[in-house]
Design brief:
The protein is of the alpha+beta class. It folds into two domains: 320 residues, DD-peptidase/beta-lactamase superfamily (Beta-lactamase), CATH 3.40.710; 98 residues, Lipocalin, CATH 2.40.128. 27% of the residues lie in helices and 24% in strands. The strands form three sheets. It has a nine-stranded antiparallel sheet, with helices on both faces. Strands 13-14-15-16-17-18-19-20 form an eight-stranded antiparallel barrel. A three-stranded antiparallel sheet has the order 4-6-5. The chain is globular, with a radius of gyration of 21 Å. The chain starts with a helix and ends with a strand.
Length: 445
């Protein structure tokens, strides 16, 4: 990649940012270890602070791969066995399902296969016992699926992993992650505590009307699930470690283990904290993240020594990633994204198998046939980033179109246009769950 090619890509980033009304975007590409970074628009629309190359962003759940890297270092040091039970490290661990309470393992947590509902964003204080106090609140976390059977994205599981790291190392989670990952990789602008960035230029999240959101920092108990704050250069440097032939702090075998599938979705797979994609003969390891009004996305093509990443500071930012990912895959790698085969005449197929009510802890989704089309309406009681935040606004109805195989539903129109929902079957072949945003909602009718 040369500077002119990067400039051409940046022109498209700016066009997409302006089209969607996103206040700020950070964009970066690394090819063979050479990094290109640029900021667009505003880091804070209210104060008129520009997004510059060194602007800090919340990378949200990309943090989970940092935790996975730390866990694998502890595995190599002989301090953790991935197949050891959670209770062997946290004796008081309990959820509503007695089987998961007794038998859930570290591997189950790292692969989101623990089966219990995990979107509990709780502020239990800023003390060094925050993770322990958080874990004690999970005893009523309901089961969504049998342990190890189906993938359901689980933030609480990573707070538990943070507590395990804390217990095994004898240090706070923040200090342990810094020593295991951040310092050895020389990520000199990666932070875990809000107080460390207050004098820096950083992204503020914005609502759809570009008003700054009222919350910024995650509570200390949720930091292992999404608390890393860094700049684009450091995020690319981190991606390079997982991309290039670098065994400086983690063996090639352990990094390959992180890229080994533990669960297959219809269109991708889940490894140890990473998502795994195949397109055009290329393999990608990826993760995205979202906090209050901020989004980030990291894509790594190890065989091509290529990393690219975005971060935005708007609830609308996710809509920017889909066209830009397609552009970058084509421009950098000559790869076309996999496009799901959607039924051309969905009204002619049997939509009844999808109709029903699907529930999880923070809400319910009603799927019905309206004027011949499949329509989903979701009600939610989620509060983010903690239990003191206001309720999330109601989601507008969405139209769903089955894919040819019938195992996914394509969202047509609106802000989520093009996203996919997995229709997960029971043993008898009937639809038992919808996996929306990688989270299971269980059918209850």
């Amino acid at each position: 990649m040369d500077h002119q090619q990067f400039d051409d890509l940046c022109d498209e980033v700016e066009r997409q940012r302006s089209r969607l009304g996103v206040p700020g975007v950070m964009f970066g590409v690394s090819v063979g270890g050479e990094r290109f970074v640029r900021g667009f628009g505003l880091a804070n629309a209210r104060l008129g602070i520009a997004a510059e190359e060194n602007t800090l962003v919340q990378i949200g759940s990309i943090t989970k791969t940092f935790v996975g890297t730390a866990m694998m270092r502890l595995v190599e040091a002989g301090k953790i066995d991935l197949d050891s039970t959670v209770r062997s490290h946290i004796p008081t661990f309990a959820v509503a399902d007695p089987v998961a309470t007794k038998a859930a393992t570290v591997r189950h947590l790292m692969t989101h296969l623990s089966g219990f509902d995990g979107d509990f964003f709780l502020d239990v204080g800023d003390g060094d016992d925050a993770l322990e106090r958080y874990a004690a609140e999970l005893h009523e976390a309901r089961s969504l699926a049998p342990l190890g059977s189906h993938y359901s994205y689980n933030n609480a599981g990573f707070s538990l992993l943070g507590l395990i790291i804390q217990n095994v190392t004898g240090e706070s989670f923040e200090d342990a992650l810094t020593k295991l990952v951040i310092d050895p990789l020389e990520l000199d602008r990666a932070y875990l505590r809000a107080k460390d960035i207050m004098t820096e230029r950083f992204f503020v999240g914005h609502s759809a009307n570009t008003t700054p959101v009222p919350h910024w920092a995650l509570s200390r108990a949720v930091v292992p699930a999404g608390g890393v704050v860094t700049d684009m250069d450091n995020l690319l440097k981190y991606g390079e470690f997982h991309c290039l032939d670098d065994a400086s702090i983690l063996s090639r075998e352990s990094r390959q283990a992180m890229r080994t599938s533990h669960y297959d979705f219809p269109d991708q797979s889940a490894g140890l904290t990473w998502f795994l994609h195949e397109a055009g003969g290329e393999s990608f390891i990826t993760h995205s993240g979202g906090t209050a009004g901020q989004n980030a996305d990291l894509w790594i093509a190890p065989s091509r020594d290529t990393v690219f990443a975005f971060a935005t500071n708007s609830v609308l930012g996710g809509a920017l990633y889909r066209p830009l990912k397609a552009l970058l895959m084509d421009a950098l790698l000559d790869v076309k994204p996999v496009v799901p085969a959607v039924l051309e005449n969905p009204e002619a197929c049997d939509l009844e198998p999808y109709v029903g009510r699907y529930e999880r802890h923070f809400g319910a989704t009603e799927v019905a046939i309206v004027n011949g089309a499949l329509v989903a309406r979701t009600t939610t009681s989620i509060r983010f980033p903690d239990q003191n935040a206001p309720l999330a606004p109601p989601e507008p109805p969405i139209e769903l179109v089955p894919t040819v195989n019938g195992d996914q539903l394509y969202i047509r129109g609106g802000a989520q246009d093009g996203r996919l929902i997995d229709a997960v079957a029971r043993d008898d072949g009937s639809i038992g769950w919808l996996r929306i945003g990688f989270r299971l909602s269980r059918r209850v009718d």
